[in-house]
Every structure is written in structure tokens, then in C-alpha cells.
Amino acid sequence: MAENLHEKLIALRKERNWTKTDVARKLGIKTLSTYANWEYGTRRPDPHMIKEIATLYNVSIDYLYGHSDNSYPTGEDEDFENAIKDPDLKRWYLELPKSDEEDLMKLRKMWEIIKNEDK
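RE: above sequence
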């Protein structure tokens, strides 16, 4: 397990086959050097951006700060483990990070339609 924030940022990015530019864009950072400095360990993101990074990678803030070995957000572990037991859902989950932003926007819209059907 990576112990330092900058090592975790690198590992999480590489797990998804993203470039530093990809991550900076997804986080809404205007200059690549800002994000790159976080990975180099020369600077640290502010608390708001830590929350954004945790959301982007679907990990807990405690995991990013090294307070937990468990990368899943607290309280969701059991639900997540049960969900990925379904082979189709697991495949979808593993493929999702490889999707481009346009496809992700389409998926979000589809999900909103599905959620609103039950209302």
C-alpha cells in the first residue's frame, strides 16, 4: 500500500490508465503543474480538493490521508462487495473508469431517468 498521498495519487491514476492531464481536467484544474506537483509531493491539495479527489476515485478521505488501508468510502463496503458479486455489474464497474467523459455524461443521464421512473 502506498503510504504517502502523492504515491496514492499516482497509483489511483495509473489503475485507471489516466494521464496527469486527464486527472487535472476531471478535477477542473486549469494548470497541469498544479496537479503534477501533488504527485511529485512538492505540494498538497487543499481540503476541498482532497474531497474532490476522493469522489473522483471513489475512495475515502481517510484512505488518501493514510488513516485507513480500506480504500472504499466508509459505510459502503458491504453494499459494494455484494454488488460486484454479480458478474455483469463487476464487469461494468471495472470498465467504467476507462470511459471517456462524454460516455460518462450519457450514463449519468440514463441513471437519472431510471431513478425518476420509480417516483
